Amino acid sequence: MLVSQWGHAVRQAKNHIYVSLSRDPIFNLAVEHFLFQETPADSRVLLLYVNRPCVVIGKNQNPWLQADLAALRRNRVDIVRRRSGGGAVFHDTGNVNYSVKCSSSEFTRDKHAVMVTEALREFTDRARVNERHDIVLDQGLPIPNIELDQEGPLGMLKTRYSTTDPRRPSLKVSGSAFKISQGKSLHHGTCLLASENIGSISQYLRSPARPFFRAYGSESLPSPVTNILDDELDSDKVSQSIERFKLSVIRRFAQLYGIDPKISSLFENDDASKDQFLRGEDWIAGYVSEVAKTPEIEQGMEELKSDQWRYGTTPRFILSSHPKLINDRQTAPTLPSWFPSDAHVHVRVKQGFIMEVDLSLPPDKGKAAQQLSELASNVNGRFVERIASFSSLLRGTPPQDEANAVVKWLDLMLGKKISK
C-alpha cells in the first residue's frame, strides 16, 4: 500500500503498528493524535517514536512552573504541550516513546505498562510496574529464597530485589499519561534506554520560579530516574539495543491482541522498504515519515507549535516576590541578595497574557521607582512569551540599579534572556 493511500486506510483497519522515522516531537504528537481521532473506536494502535531533545508537558500544565525555560533555550531544547494530561517529561534520542490506543472497554492503566516491562525484562530483571503505573528499576539487594512468577502480568509487578531500603530507592525509567474519550483510550509513555542527558533532566524540569508561584492546573511529581542500558555500551550497541527493544514491544503488542504475527515482519528486515505500508486482512503496519502527512496531521502540527497552544492554554497563575504563606509552617522563599529589600513584584497571568502587574519601589527611590512604574504600564496586557526580555523594555537613561535588579529577577523567573 502506497503512502498516499495510508490516510484513508487508517480509518478502516482494526489493528495498526507504526514506527516513526521522524525526530520532530511536533510531528510525532500530531501523528499520535491523528491515529487516536481517525482510527475506528474498537481499533488497536501501537506507535513507537524517538524525539530530538525536548520537554513535553501535560495539557493542563504551566511551562513556566514545570521547566527551566532559560536552560531549554540555551541548550536548544524544545518545549511542547501534548493533548493528554500527566506530568512533564524529557525526551531525547536515547528515549523510546510508545503510544497505544485501544477501546476503553479493553483498557486498564497497567495493561500496556506490563507489555513494555515484559520487553524490558530482556535487558534487566529489575524492571517492574509500580503503583503509579510507572516503570521502575528496583535498586535493592536480592531477597533470599524468594519465588516469583516471572511471567504474565502479575510477574511484572514485583522483582526479586528489595524495595524497603531507603538508601536504595527504585529509579524511574518510564512515566505514563492517559486520555479516555468517546469510547477510546490512549496510553503513552516514555522509556529511558540510554539518554545522554540523564544528568541534566532534573535541571531542565526544575523551574527557578517555583517558590514564587501560585498556580492552578496539574503539577508534576518529580522522581529520581536512570537509564536501562549500561552507560558503558558504545553507540553501536546502544542503537542495536534500542532497535531490539522496539521489535520486542511490537511482537508483544501483536501477541497481546491476537494479531497475525506477520505484522511484525516489516520491522524485522533491515532492508524493508520505508516508503510504503504493509496491509493484511485486518491490519496495517509501516514506517511513518513526514512524507505521510495528511491535512489533519498538518493542521495538528500547526496547532501544537503555536504560542497560543504552548503558552496561551496555561491555567492562570500569579508570580510574586513575596507570596502569601498558606500556613504558619510555611516559610517565605529566599530572594537573591541583589534583589532590593524594599521592592515588590506581583504579576497575574491568564491565558498567557499579563492581566495585572505591580513592579514597585518606595517613592523616595525617585527615577528607579518611576522606571518600574512605566515598565509595568508598558507590559500590562501583553502576551508573556512574546516579550523577549523585560530588561530590554526598561526605559530611562541610565536605568537605575534598583530597577535593573527587579527586572533582572523578573526575567529569571519567566525564563527570559538576561542582559549582560
Describe the structure.
With 420 residues, the protein is an alpha+beta fold. The protein folds into 2 domains: 3-310, BirA Bifunctional Protein, domain 2 (2-Layer Sandwich), CATH 3.30.930.10; 317-413, Sufe protein. Chain: A, CATH 3.90.1010. It is built from 13 helices and 17 strands. The strands form 4 sheets. It has a 7-stranded mixed sheet, sandwiched between helices. A 4-stranded antiparallel sheet has the order 12-15-16-17. Strands 4-3-5 form a 3-stranded mixed sheet. β7 (127-129) and β8 form a beta hairpin. α2 (25-38) crosses α10 (295-304), α5 crosses α8 and α12 packs parallel to α13. The chain is globular, with a radius of gyration of 24 Å. The chain starts with a helix and ends in a 7-residue tail after the last helix. 41% of the residues are buried.
Q: How is this fold's topology laid out?
A:
Elements: H1 3-9, E1 15-20, H2 25-38, E2 44-50, E3 54-57, H3 63-66, H4 69-74, E4 78-81, E5 89-91, E6 96-103, H5 111-120, E7 127-129, E8 135-137, H6 152-155, E9 171-174, E10 176-181, E11 184-189, H7 201-204, E12 213-215, H8 235-256, H9 265-268, E13 277-279, E14 283-288, H10 295-304, H11 307-310, E15 317-320, E16 344-350, E17 353-360, H12 367-379, H13 401-413
Parallel strand pairs: 1-2, 1-14, 3-4
Antiparallel strand pairs: 2-6, 3-5, 6-11, 7-8, 8-9, 10-11, 12-15, 13-14, 15-16, 16-17
Q: Report the top-level CATH class of the largest domain.
A: Alpha Beta
| Oligomerization | single chain
Q: Indicate the low-confidence ranges by residue numbers.
A: none
Count of distinct structural domains: 2
Q: If helices are DSSP runs of H or I spanning 4 or more residues, what is the number of helices?
A: 13
Radius of gyration: 24 Å
CATH topology of the largest domain: BirA Bifunctional Protein, domain 2
Classification by helices and strands? alpha+beta
CATH superfamily of the largest domain: Bira Bifunctional Protein, Domain 2
The average pLDDT value, as a whole number, equals 91
* Major beta sheet summary: 7 strands, mixed
